[in-house]
Amino acid sequence: MQYVRALWRRKWLILGVTAVMVLVGVLYTLRQPKIYAASTSLIIDVAAPRVLDTDVKEVMGDERGNYWANKEYYQTQSEVITSRAVASRVADRLGLRNDPAFLGVEGIKDEAARKKAMESMDAVALVRSRISVIPSTNSRVVRIAVEDVDPKRAALLANEVAEAYIAENLALKLKTTEGASAWLEERLSELGSRASSSEMDLYKFKRSADVLSLATEGKAGQQPSSAKQAYDSYMAELITVRTKMANIQAKVEAIRQLRKNPNPEAEHWAEGLPEANEGALRDLRTQVLEQRTACVELSERYLPDHPKMQECQGKLAVMQQELRRSLDNLVRGAETELAAIQATERNLLTRVAEAKAEAFQITEKEIAYEKLRREAENDLRLYEMVLKRFKELELSGLLRTSNVRVLDAALPNPVPVRPNTRSAVMLFFMLGLLGGVAVVVGLEFLDASVATRADVESRLGLPFIGAMPPLKVEEGSPTDLFIHRHPRSHAAEMCRAIRTNLLFMSPDKPFRTVVVSSAGPSEGKSTVVINLGMVMAQTGTRVLLMDTDMRRPRLHKAFGVPDDVGVSSLVVGEGSLERAIKSTDVPNLFVLPCGPIPPNPAELLHSRAFSELLGKLRERFDCILLDSPPLGPVSDALVLSKQTDGILLVLKAGSTHRDQAKRAIRALRDVKAHVIGALLNDADGKNSRYDYQTYKYYGSYGAERDEQRTAS
User: Using an 8 Å Cβ cutoff, are 376 and 140 in contact?
Assistant: First the structure.
């Protein structure tokens, strides 16, 4: 509220600063050149229209599908629109580098100076400074706005910027495509040479390996090599031979075991042979058995020496020998067959080893062959891929499609966008208002005067006795007796409040002698002494106003009494007390003038004679108010404060500096004087700074009393 009151108190200062700022704003606005704006609307798609098949990819064909990618794309396009490349295209197409009106040098009359000024200016930078990109929210529409002092040129520039942006996009696309095509063409030539070289290396390898074709082992749909086939055939035959050899060897072993039989008869050990029971051997065995049976029958009739017995035995021996020879041939045949099959096995083992060695050699060749074949296939595949991409870029490079198209062309706008006089006036009005408020707040912050009750109590640490308003009288009328002539006035009520506060500050032991002083001169202490004495006398108290200001006395002037005998005369023993004390028009109010001005006031007041004088006066009067000099310049008030009940400090509201008041208070406390309190003089109740509500209350209350008295 203190600052609010300060603003209201200094409202004319605020209005003055505001008026000055508004005037400056109007003059500034009127001196500014008029700026016109024009805008071209563009639709910027993320990708260009798809004319070719989806399999044909362009170099810059970046498909974007999420919000952040699209946002980044449109921000990039905004940077492209305001780029130097686009601005340079516009400057070249419109010849702005040689346009004096655009460069702002048409006012230079000297041709050489104008040409030099044009050469020093950057037309491209001027174009860029006038371009602004305004994207539309949640759409693909972008506005290109251009500002210029000429509305027609602003529209022309906006349209040319749009066309230059589209051309720059196509040029960038074409440049990128041409660069990619050139690179692909170099790679295509290189890869073609590598593919041909790889195929030739594969052919040379076949010739050097002396093979028509090689098949990779284990690959589906391919036949094994001849070495592998021979190896497999030999292995199968070897297995068959070994199986047969095992059978024959088992047979030979069985015959050998049977021949070890202790029975010498050939037909007995041959019984275990399967071949003995087949063919001629079987018949031969049968004959041997029959002949042996016949000999046994003859032995029953004949003796061994009988010719028939001998003949029979002879035939039997011949048959047994024949059987034995046949059996030997059988054994030798089996052994011969075994030897033959073993020889076959050895031969097959040799063939298998040879086939295996050949297969290993072919495998090594296949590895080398496969390596060459893979290189040839990779080179061919890369060549085909690069060739395909090269053809696609050739086709897309011929296509002149753009993802940008003009929606609305710019038209000249006859209404300028700047300066906006209304907005400028409002802006400077607000600046002036804020500036005025800032000035007031600064003055209030820098104001170190004592102005309010809070200043007295919190900043000075003194009790607040009250406040005296300015005494407004008619011209030529004395101000000192204002309260006597206007007892129901606002000032009289406030003075009575001061009197009441003084009484309540020491109800048991009222103040009999009170020194009234101030921190500096011209702060109204004499006026306070007079008015306070008047309201005290109105209560029936005998009050003496004692003028102890022996440097600039004025109580005798206020009451119009002579000053020939006074305080100084009584102290030095001249004159009588009855002659020195003067009565006034106010009942119970008396005045003791200063008397002749002495050369040493401080020593005079510090004398015993003055103390005795003050004691005599206490016996005659109920209250003595001593008007003393200010505390700042002289020490008279300090001397008086030690001989009285206390000192009342008068501070002029809004004038007395806080530091000056603090020095005065410090001086009083240094001499251990009793400081009753402080009152504010000249506190204007209409001034919001001086506790307006309190002073308004006094005034309204007194006014009501006056109205009632007048009516009655």
Answer: no
